[in-house]
Amino acid sequence: VCGGPSCYMYIYGNTTEAALQRNFTKLFELQERVRNGTETEPLPPELQPLITGDNDEGSEVNEVKKHREANMSERLNRFTVKVLHAAANVSVLFLMTAIAMRNLAVGLPPLEQLTSEVAFSTMKEPETNQDEVGHDEL
């Protein structure tokens, strides 16, 4: 074995694959013990979906089935929401790009102005100092 980076990657790849094979073997053995009823210890929560076969695929299938069987108004509503979200994302990217290009061309504005511009482009309320008294606190 050489000391070059390619050898390190080869060793890493082989040891990672070997560890993965060992873990899969343990998982399959555990599945067999659960099916046979010989497993006496409780299963960890993260392994229960793998062993019992219960996972979120059923809910995904139901969701797809619900989308396919939706009437025309529900489909139009879902399409409109997706288009509006895409348009909002594009407008945010456009505004952020414009702010960045302006900053490159003329330099950074004061921090308060930059904060308010970024908050506006991401459609968030600008953060205010808690020390300042607002109108509703007077």
TrEMBL record:
Residues 37-62 are annotated as: Disordered. This is Uncharacterized protein.
